[in-house]
Design brief:
Elements: E1 3-8, H1 23-40, E2 45-48, H2 54-65, E3 72-75, H3 88-100, E4 103-104, H4 116-128, E5 131-135, H5 144-152, E6 159-162, H6 164-177
Helix pairs in contact: 1-2, 1-6, 2-3, 4-5
InterPro entries: YspA (IPR010697)
Organism: Lentibacillus populi
Protein name: UPF0398 protein YpsA
Length: about 180
Amino acid sequence: MKVLTVTGYKPMELNIFKVDDHRITFIKAAIRKRLIAFIEEGLEWVLISGQMGVELWAAEVVRELREQYDVKLAIIPPFESQEERFPEPIQQQYQELVSIADFYKPLYVGYYKGAFQFKAKNKWLIDKSDGCLIVMDEEFPGSGRFFYLEAKGWDNYPVYSITPADLDDVVEELRMADPDYWT
């Protein structure tokens, strides 16, 4: 797999309302673990649409991984200025990530015109990638369900997931890596 789309929950779907919430550390660690495995198998590009939450956290992980691996980041928002509706700290995060992306281009010129832009974005990301990684619980899929359902409808399109159980495993791994855990 050379190109992977990453998506998942928005922060408010996880009851995360601050950019420094400690739970983000665990989500990013789970994404990092999966991305490293894909990179070591030949992954070259990570695609996101730049939505708040999992996608921006994944972009931050890619930025960090670039220090050790040759991996590129593409941000393909559904329309221009999607970040205008984001809270100010997340707008800043978005702009920083756009500035370091290897490729950035909105699918539609202009502002939000309708839900069709999000549907087109999902189809485009699936068409241009070899598979996807989605942070989602199938019981409580949140807004990621739209991408997930679209992806599941495509033939020979692998859908990899990070589930709540995977996140629990990462939390435990990180706790056990702390030397104070064993004392």
